């Protein structure tokens, strides 16, 4: 049975965000700004329904979805694109596949103790973020 990811997580660290954003064709000014942000994550996980909020001082981003059901995700606030997105479990990892203009786009969430890990991919770039559970 997959873990329940419900909780509030504070930003700890990130690696390779600038190159990841470059792969998404984000302009240099916005890339520099995003690299300075320290987002928090709030996850509400009830059965096959999840809401993942990414919370920053600039803007929040909310994903509200049912596991295993493809939906159109509007990534306008991120990079101006729309994707056909499916989120499902692969073992203990929550895996998101975002089909659209960019190859190999998606992410994985998993827990290691009280830390939430996020691995985001776009094209050949990988960004890893770590968050500490606070409640």
Automatic annotation (TrEMBL):
Domain of life: Eukaryota
GO function term, MF aspect, one: lipid binding
InterPro entries found in the cross-reference section: Calycin, Fatty_acid-bd, ILBP
Family: Belongs to the calycin superfamily. Fatty-acid binding protein (FABP) family.
Assembly description: Monomer.
Protein name: RET5 protein
Record gene name: Rbp5
């Amino acid at each position: 049975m997959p873990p329940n990811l419900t909780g509030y997580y504070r930003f700890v660290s990130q690696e390779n965000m600038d190159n990841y954003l470059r792969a998404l064709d984000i302009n240099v000014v916005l890339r520099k700004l995003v690299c300075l942000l320290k987002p928090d994550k709030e996850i509400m996980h009830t059965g096959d329904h999840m809401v993942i909020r990414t919370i920053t001082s600039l803007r929040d981003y909310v994903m509200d979805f049912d596991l295993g059901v493809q939906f159109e995700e509007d990534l306008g606030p991120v990079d101006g694109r729309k994707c056909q997105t499916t989120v499902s479990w692969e073992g203990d990892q929550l895996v998101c596949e975002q089909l659209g203009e960019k190859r190999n786009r998606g992410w994985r969430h998993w827990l290691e103790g009280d830390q939430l890990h996020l691995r985001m991919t776009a094209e050949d770039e990988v960004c890893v973020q770590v968050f500490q559970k606070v409640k």
